[in-house]
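<instruction>
Derive structure tokens from the sequence
<data>
Labelled lines for chain and fold:
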Amino acid sequence: MTAQTSRPRPAGPGAADRRREVLAATNAVVTVVDPPLPHAAEGPLAGLRVGLKDNIDTAGVRTTCGSAHFADRVPEDDAEVVTRLVDAGAQVVAKTNLSEFAVGLTSQNSAAGPCRNPWDLARIPGGSSGGSAAAVAAGLVDVAVGTDTGGSVRVPAAACGVTGLRPGGSVVPQAGTFPVCELVDAVGPIARDVQLVARTFAVLAGRPVREPVPAPPTRIGLPAHWYGEIDAGVEQVVAAAAQVFADGGAELVPVEVPGICSAQDVLYTIVYAGMADLHEARLAAPYLFHPDTLARVRVGTRVTEGDRAEALEARAEFQRGLDEVFAGVDVLLTPTLPVDVPLATTDDDVLALTRRLALLTAPWSLHAGPTLALPVGRHPVSGMPVGAQLTAPAGGEDRLLDAGAWFQQRTPWHAQRPPCAVD
């Protein structure tokens, strides 16, 4: 499966050739939509080029979910978020690459071929919305829409040095988006900066557009559990980002989050069980799955109803504990990825690697509130982007966007472009 041969019209001499080079090098796009989907002439997103993760339905344009199972699938209707985007003037120009069925955090198991990171083509872009983040970082689109189950917006945002929002709960409708596990899935925007993320989020959520009002949080909670497991370079960069907030007047408060150490196992029990239910019929044709995806789906078939019920109760307990934590702080701050961005040629067990990459994102997927992923620096060894995430109580999207806008007024990381990018 490769991108269609037609291209958006170039902005100037040589632009078309460069775009082709970047498309081929990153493999961030499954299908180029040219001309763009019909859209309003005016609106808050007028003139912006948008990429959609290829598990988001587009009427008359194939939506593959990165799988041979859906190689020729062409939906009859747009997903609800697509309708909102085009009504706001957005030009949908691309369907972006992803982990197969949005399963996994590397974007190397797509039937469209592996996606690569525009900062270093030898490295993964994160996943499962890897093509969405890579396309934004490479300048192929202005904004992209991804989905997030255990970190699938936040991990690629961190790996590709861009900004991504996982909204809380069912703030953004999932209708017409192929799920991983509807109980924890969220649809969210990815862009270079908070301003554009905020504008796109408002459209996706069906809200009036609100420009962020830059302001640091008053009290920032720093969960103390993981720091022995975090790469020293990542820890150094995120500590410097926390200090930016402290220098702006925020109080940094060490906090204990009840249940945080078991949260990832709780999430995976819920998600894998949901995946097994969703793909039960497709298991009759296992050869159409990528082996990595198939392994995860088969893990889900071993989850019992008792396991699932226990996990759902643990999720409710975790949410109650977070409510108590948020009584004392405005937001929580952690790294997004606990490690440097991995090479695409890693020999690590893919399930173990996914667990490692999701160590810091998975817990907040159990939370009813939002999380914002921000680029906060560069790794001192590799030079790759490093991300941090801010998490707020339910309904706290504006709080996060205000804090993120304040941070980006004072730091350069969101404005930097990778070597493999459209000029």
